[in-house]
Design goal:
By secondary structure, the chain is mainly α. About 60% of the residues lie in helices and about 0% in strands.
Length: about 210
């Protein structure tokens, strides 16, 4: 079985397991997803959701983020870790969106990457969830699981993205990434994955070698 065939099977099996492919970050406005994603670096989505529940009420607009007192904003996001950098990024992103993009999220990868603190992982999340375009979000779950089932030998996010773009059907890619995250939390956990009950074990390289 080649990598393309494995990728198609993985898409089908995970769609059966998680028919509703949803982002685990809570948001009501497009830019809020980007802000939440920035806060999620080195932090759990569950903790980010607790922080943003209050944060997005306190700062309900881009203008309120742009005008926020930086020291106060740092305290507001402190629980997410690296709060000096993250607060600075949120304030700068708000200003950039207002000044450079008329208050709207840009819809291209190149434009998204001009925003403060935004890398390809977050940009791909925006491309998939907000703009409904093909996107591969290479978070830690994605890198671990695609490596285990034999779709890539790489560990670097950019290289994994490049490998998987040609394997995953474009129309499935964004949902596939969300399903992988949930699967990584429920079944294919980092330590002692539940291979015996895994619906991917019949073609998984890791399960075969275990």
């Amino acid at each position: 079985m080649n990598k393309k065939e494995k990728a198609i099977l993985a898409c089908k099996e995970l769609k059966k397991l998680y028919p509703d492919a949803l982002c685990s970050l809570n948001y009501s406005k497009p830019y809020e997803l980007m802000f939440a994603a920035r806060l999620s670096a080195q932090c759990t989505d569950a903790r980010v959701n607790k922080v943003t529940e209050k944060l997005f009420v306190k700062y309900p607009t881009l203008e309120s983020f742009a005008d926020a007192d930086l020291n106060e904003l740092e305290q507001d996001v402190k629980q997410c870790g690296f709060y000096h950098t993250k607060a600075k990024n949120l304030k700068e992103m708000a200003n950039q969106l207002i000044v450079n993009f008329n208050g709207e999220l840009p819809s291209t990868m190149d434009e998204l990457l001009t925003l403060s603190g935004i890398g390809r992982k977050t940009a791909n999340l925006i491309m998939g969830d907000i703009w409904k375009k093909p996107a591969v979000v290479t978070d830690t779950h994605f890198i671990r699981i695609t490596g285990r089932i034999g779709l890539t030998e790489n560990k670097e996010p950019a290289k994994v993205e490049k490998d998987l773009v040609i394997l995953i059907p474009p129309q499935e890619s964004s949902d596939f990434c969300h399903r992988i995250v949930q699967f990584g939390r429920d079944v294919c956990i980092a330590r002692n994955p539940h291979c015996s009950v895994c619906s991917l074990n019949y073609f998984c390289k890791f399960a075969e070698d275990k």
